[in-house]
Amino acid sequence: MKPLVSTIIPVFNRPAMLREAVASVLSQTWRPVEIVIVDDASTDDTPKVIAALAAQHPEVRSIRKANGGPGLAREAGRLEAQGDFIQYLDSDDLLMPRKFALQIEAFENEPECGVAYGRTRYRNAAGEEIECTWKEANQIQKTIFPSFLVARWWETSTPLYRKAVCDAAGPWMALRLEEDWEYDCRVGALGTRLAFVDEVVAEHRDHDDGRLSRGSGADPARLRDRAAAHELIASHARRAGVPIESPEFQRFGREVFHLGRQCGAADLTAESKRLVSLARSISPSADVRIYQLAARVFGWRHAGRAAAWMDRR
């Protein structure tokens, strides 16, 4: 029998786009498939839409859980999935019809690989195809590290994972921001090899509905999650054996230093101390050492706000 592909779709208050996401899975040329929708405590018509989809399509089943964000929702779906391969799909994105067929063929051609991926197409809120300019997207790599230290250059919908890789990576973290970057870096720490498909396999759509990726950069809750993610990513990169002197790790260290200053300005002293210390362990440059000394003398909040003022000049 052909292997089953399980698609996990977390959703919160997004009924119309959820229908489209589910339709993109049902349009796959590959069979068999199953779809596990995880309702993250929606408060609108989303539960009714989920019930209708499950009644109309035997491939669809659902679970409802207390609101905990996308990471915990994906984890709840992962534990329910029965497939040999795992597809994570955000409710506002789409899969191309031949995605599963192309990526499973890539697995067959490269059986040592644990993740298969392809190119991602980007659209703006008006539905127009656009170039991704906010990160170095659609790279061709054989491993996740070291390039993932610079940016997560695919979207959640892009890769297809062997279930064994997801099991080895372990559970998704209870983060609401950068939880996907941290998860894939954990996959990278396993030494997972990547198989590439030179076709568009997924579509990432911008829209005017609420997105967790949007929000104030000074929001303490967002900064806490980003701080936790960055600390974990650094540990995953070290576990993967990425040389600390590599350009990618050094660039990541500068980002950690900047984030540490932001945490200080937001009065997140513990996070700021840890991140600045981490940045210094990656790159003990003079400005990091001076900042750390100034923060200890004048206070982490004052140092962070002074740095933010300097950055705006």
Keywords:
313 residues; 2 domains; 11 helices; 9 strands; globular
Structure commentary:
It is a single chain. This protein is of the alpha/beta class and 313 residues long. The chain has 2 domains: 5-205, Spore Coat Polysaccharide Biosynthesis Protein SpsA, Chain A (Alpha-Beta Complex), CATH 3.90.550.10; 220-312, no CATH class. It is built from 11 helices and 9 strands. The chain has helices at 15-26, 46-56, 70-80, 99-109, 163-169, 179-189, 220-239, 247-265, 269-282, 286-298, 300-312; strands at 5-11, 33-39, 60-64, 85-88, 94-95, 115-123, 129-130, 160-162, 194-205. Strands 1, 2, 3, 4, 5, 6, 7, 8 and 9 form a 9-stranded mixed sheet that branches. Helix 6 (179-189) runs parallel beside helix 7 (220-239). The chain is globular, with a radius of gyration of 20 Å.
Please report the total strand number as a whole number.
9
In the CATH classification, which architecture of the largest domain applies?
Alpha-Beta Complex
* Beta-strand residue percentage: 15-25%
Residue share in helix = 40-55%
Mean pLDDT: 96
Distance between the termini: 63 Å
Low-confidence stretches: none
Q: What Rg do the Cα atoms give?
A: 20 Å
Q: How many domains make up the 3D coordinates? A: 2
Gross morphology: globular
* Helix/strand order: EHEHEHEEHEEEHHEHHHHH
Q: Within the CATH hierarchy, at the fold level, what is the topology of the largest domain?
A: Spore Coat Polysaccharide Biosynthesis Protein SpsA, Chain A
What's the helix count?
11
CATH class term of the largest domain:
Alpha Beta
CATH superfamily of the largest domain: Spore Coat Polysaccharide Biosynthesis Protein SpsA, Chain A
Describe the biggest sheet?
A: 9 strands, mixed
Class derived from helix and strand content:
alpha/beta
